[in-house]
Specification:
Layout: H1 9-12, H2 18-29, H3 40-52, E1 63-71, H4 87-95, H5 100-108, E2 112-118, H6 128-131, H7 150-169, E3 174-182, H8 184-196, H9 200-203, H10 213-230, H11 237-244, H12 247-261, E4 266-268, H13 271-283, E5 291-293, H14 300-309, H15 325-343
Parallel strand pairs: 1-2, 1-3, 3-4, 4-5
Length: 365
């Protein structure tokens, strides 16, 4: 099998149908509710219509939260609020229904799928359907070594592509994308700094678990060292993911690109999803047209990535817990936009006069 070239996605991904979007905009002008009165929900409805190639837009009936899990060796440096090798505890909390995203998903009736791309734990600790896709046990310490081999990076990207195909084939009509990782925000910030050409201090945040000032300085130093290793491979997205990404980030990148190929909209959660989106944009510039930014988490790297992706977050509540929680909070807005665009009636045509020259015009209030 020849090596995967992410640049090939550029020829496979088309933009949502602009003609359909114009039709949706024209229909919006005819609705009983005045144009602009629904704010950004108007724009969301038109975006969905273009993505679905349908006017009026169809309701979002089968959304799914997909969470990729992994441990990152850089967490051994104390750059995270959680210890290295404990991401499986986050997964277990989701599966047992006691994490924020699990509570929210249960209340909203959205199924959650967890994919172990690179957890560093005994596979027997988790269900077979979660661990069966694992690429490797943990990712390397990106400040001094590669996160993955190039072959492992390709395997992870293909894993994400396969998961996207499975979701599209099963009827999923919108995905909420998140991560369950320890050390993932450090890898994500490194990717974003490398792709945006900025310094480590500009992208270093406190992470979902929160860290003190000393840990922040360690994290900044780790990102700085990882950046030195990332810059020489910026011309090859697969090598970049292998050098400073990780199995979960590579899988999420493949997932995002294949979702765009399959014309399946995705709502991005936090900084990890944003970093993968930035790698995807580098490979296929039209791919971000299929994504929404669910929320602004407060991570500086996420804000920089979303600006580069030209994605405006739907929410800004400072939800930094990760796991897809912030994006899942935004899902009702997307569903409401679809419902308004589909179900609000059009204005009745006005008549200049009644038949037979009768000047009396009746109207129903």
């Amino acid at each position: 099998m020849s090596r995967l070239n992410l640049d090939d996605f550029s020829e496979l991904i088309e933009r949502p149908d602009s003609g359909i979007r114009r039709d949706a905009e024209e229909r919006r002008e005819r609705l009983v509710v005045p144009p602009g009165s629904l704010g950004r929900l108007d724009e969301l409805g038109e975006w969905l219509a273009a993505a679905q190639a349908a006017v009026p837009v169809r309701a979002i009936e089968q959304p799914r939260a997909v969470l990729f899990a992994g441990d990152h060796g850089v967490a051994e440096l104390g750059v995270s609020g959680r210890e290295y090798g404990t991401a499986h505890e986050l997964v277990r909390a989701v599966l047992e229904g006691v994490s924020p995203v699990a509570v929210l998903a249960r209340r909203s009736g959205v199924p959650v799928r967890v994919v172990d791309a690179g957890l560093d734990c005994d596979p027997g600790l988790l269900p077979e359907d979660v661990v069966k896709h694992r690429v490797r046990r943990g990712s390397g310490r990106i400040d001094i070594e590669d996160a993955l081999t190039v072959e492992e990076a390709e395997q992870a990207v293909r894993l994400g592509m396969a998961i996207a195909d499975e979701e599209a084939d099963s009827g999923t009509d919108l995905v909420v994308l998140g991560d369950l990782s320890v050390g993932g925000t450090t890898a994500a910030a490194t990717l974003i700094a490398a792709l945006c050409g900025t310094d480590a201090s500009v992208v270093t945040g406190r992470g979902g678990a929160g860290i003190d000032d000393l840990a922040w300085m360690r994290k900044c130093a780790a990102i700085r060292d990882a950046l030195r290793r990332a810059r020489p491979v910026l011309g090859d997205q697969l090598e970049l993911l292998a050098t400073v990404g990780g199995a979960d980030l590579a899988a999420m990148t493949g997932f995002l690109l294949q979702c765009a190929v399959r014309r399946m909209p995705v709502v991005l959660d936090g900084v990890v999803a944003a970093a993968c989106g930035l790698v995807g944009q580098r490979a296929a510039f039209r791919s971000p047209d299929w994504w929404l930014a669910g929320q602004l988490s407060g991570e500086p790297a996420q804000a920089k990535a979303l600006d580069r992706l030209a994605l405006t977050p739907l929410l800004d509540h400072g939800v930094s817990v990760g796991e897809g929680t912030g994006a899942l909070l935004a899902l009702p807005l997307v569903q409401a936009a679809a419902a308004f665009a589909a179900e609000l009636p059009e204005r009745k045509a006005e008549t200049a006069g009644a038949a037979g020259g009768n000047d009396d015009v009746s109207a129903t209030d």
